[in-house]
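hey so i finally got around to running the thing on that chain from the lab meeting. sorry it took forever, my laptop kept dying and i had to restart like 3 times. anyway pasting the input first so we r on the same page abt which one it is
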Amino acid sequence: MNMHLNEAKRILVANDRGGYTVPTDRLYPFQWNWDSAFVAMGFALYDTDRAYRELERLVEGQWADGMIPHIVFHQPSDTYFPGPDVWRTSHMIPTSGITQPPVFAIALRKVFEAAGPQARSRTILLYEAALKWHRWWYSARDPEGTGLVALLHPWESGSDNSPAWDIALARVPTTTDTPVVRRDTGHVNAEMRPRDEDYSRFIHLVDTYAACRWNPAKQWQKAPFKVAEIQTTAILLKAGEDLEYLARLFGRSAEADAIAALNDRTRRALIRQWRPKLSRFVSRDLISGEDIEAATQAGFIPLLALDLEAPVADALVNEMSAWSEGLKVAFPTTRPGIVGWEPKRYWRGPAWAIINWLLIDGLKRNRYTDAAEDLRRSTIAAIESEGFAEYFDPVTGEGCGGLGFSWTAAAYLWLIST
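ok and heres what got predicted. didnt touch it at all, straight out
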């Protein structure tokens, strides 16, 4: 038996808090949205009941308007900031007030396919929650019907301190109504975490939206940070494809047709974000109206949801190859060597197993099987060498951030099985 496989399963058990999984002990002591979706796909390989439970516990945090928040505070903890008192939301279970990339429906399809027809009724309940969230994305975060969904906080991207936000975030004041009491740097080296100035801006945004009582229309109007984001939009489109598949499977043809129309709109919008001179896709700053040209992993995530024409796909994959050249671990979250690249600091350079997982699926979709296999092997080798770290320094291969990390364990389980 593969000892790393056993260790991956052991980590998921160690991080179990009663049907939901924390990303890692102390640093992240609650249930995180897209973490749980990846974890559910890991569980689906050997324990479908537990995979369903992960998604069901996440849906306990779903708001009446359909949003599934990025954190569900099932139990109190004082090892994380900002906690429920800072978010000031009014859901029956304490939650944050923002969301995260909608991997949920992608996970639901994989879990259902692993479980088989006997899980139909359990799946339909979760499908309905996923559909409600899907509709929320389009109504709350694309009110003008462009096909691209917007983020109102960098944390919603999952790539919290990415160089992609530097220009847009610089316009956000550092003043806060809430004292910023950082807990993360007590668990992890500060050199690996966002800077204090970033945190002040993050909390300014939280204060701004709490003052709107988390009303989506008011937030849209007041938002000092508003980015139509390609990584999130690509994940939403892939989720939409999987939702449409489930809707047709369950005989819900009217819903399937409505989802298909949204998918079509988003597909066209995403393709329009291709920039040949950069050989990647770009997000758009909705406040300045300008492209976000920062060189980050987000520019390649549309592989996941688009069947690209050969010249576009070739250019994209060649660019990925150029970024990866000479690295111990691919794929970097920022292009190596540019201003702003920090190979150990969170989303400003390191390689993440879950980003690689999305890219591998996208490369396979577009029939780049060799590139997908190279990235799969690089990710597996990093984990087997350094353990189940939150992320990896792409130059040295060193495991960084939190250790014993749930989504890295889930990614390993998935990557060794494909």
